[in-house]
Write a structure and sequence with these properties.
By secondary structure, the chain is of the alpha/beta class. The chain has two domains: 8-77, Winged helix-like DNA-binding domain superfamily/Winged helix DNA-binding domain (Arc Repressor Mutant, subunit A, Orthogonal Bundle); 84-196, NAD(P)-binding Rossmann-like Domain (Rossmann fold, 3-Layer(aba) Sandwich). The protein has eight helices and ten strands. The protein has helices spanning 8-26, 34-41, 45-53, 67-77, 93-100, 137-144, 155-168, 194-204; strands spanning 31-32, 59-60, 64-66, 84-89, 109-116, 125-126, 129-133, 148-151, 172-175, 188-191. The protein has a seven-stranded mixed beta sheet. It has a three-stranded antiparallel beta sheet with strand order 1-3-2. α2 crosses α3 (45-53) and α6 (137-144) crosses α7 (155-168). The longest helix is centred in the N-terminal third of the chain and has 19 residues, at 8-26.
Length: 206
C-alpha cells in the first residue's frame, strides 16, 4: 500500500528500517519487534509503529514482524524490488570511488554508465566502465530510458550538469556537489555533503 499523503520525513526513515532488517536477516533472525528495531536505530518503537502504519498492517501485537515479509514490503514501497539503472556524471576522485563501489546492486541500484566532460578522461577506464563524453549524455539516457542519476561534479558545474540531465529525461538526482541545484518540481533531488553533517555534529560536541 502507498499513500500520497505520507510525510517525506517518514519515507526518509523507511530505508533505515530496511537496512536494519537486512542486517537482522543476515544474522539469521526471522522475527523482530518495533522495540528491537528502535534499539538498533535510536528511534522510539512508537514512532516505528506509527511510520509503518502509514502503509498498512505488517505485524501483530505480541507476535512482532516477520523480517522477510516486512523487508519485501518495504522494498515494494520504496520501489527497490527491482534494479534501477543509474548514470554517474563526474569521474573525479569521488566519481571513481562511486564507480568502484560494490554496495549498490544488492540494494536496488546499478551504475549503468559514467560520463565526464574532461577530454583527458573520455575513453579511459574507471572500474568496470569506460568514461563517456558528457556531450553524449542526452542520447545515451534517452536510448536506455534511464531515470536516475548521480552527480559528482565540482559545484560550479553542478547546475549545468543537472540541466542536461533534466533535459535528457532524468527524474531523480543524487547530488554530491557541495551546492544547491534548481530543477523542476517533477524532478526529485537529494544531497550528500559530508561537511554539512560534520558541521551538524560539531554543534553537539562538548
Amino acid at each position: 500500500m502507498r499513500s500520497s499523503h505520507v510525510p517525506d520525513i517518514v519515507v526518509g526513515r523507511l530505508p533505515l528500517y530496511l537496512r536494519a532488517l537486512n542486517h537482522m536477516q543476515a544474522e539469521g533472525n526471522e522475527i523482530t519487534s518495533s522495540q528491537e528495531l528502535g534499539e538498533r536505530l535510536g528511534i522510539s518503537s512508537a514512532q516505528i509503529r506509527k511510520d509503518l502504519s502509514q502503509f498498512g498492517e505488517f505485524g501483530k501485537q505480541g507476535t512482532g514482524y516477520n523480517i522477510g515479509y516486512l523487508s519485501d514490503q518495504l522494498r515494494s514501497i520504496l520501489k527497490v524490488d527491482r534494479v534501477w539503472d543509474v548514470v554517474l556524471v563526474g569521474v573525479g576522485d569521488l566519481g571513481r570511488a562511486l564507480a568502484n563501489y560494490a554496495g549498490f546492486l544488492d540494494r536496488g541500484f546499478r551504475i549503468y554508465s559514467i560520463f565526464d566532460s574532461d577530454p583527458k578522461k573520455i575513453g579511459k577506464r574507471a572500474g568496470d566502465f569506460t568514461i563517456q563524453d558528457a556531450a553524449e549524455l542526452r542520447k545515451a539516457i534517452q536510448a536506455d530510458d534511464i531515470q536516475v542519476a548521480m552527480l559528482a561534479v565540482p559545484s560550479d558545474q553542478a547546475q549545468a550538469a543537472a540541466d542536461a540531465l533534466v533535459e535528457a529525461g532524468i527524474r531523480a538526482i543524487l547530488c554530491y556537489a557541495p551546492t544547491s541545484i534548481t530543477t523542476p518540481a517533477s524532478v526529485r533531488v537529494e544531497y550528500i555533503d559530508p561537511v554539512l553533517h560534520l558541521q551538524h555534529m560539531t554543534y553537539h560536541v562538548v
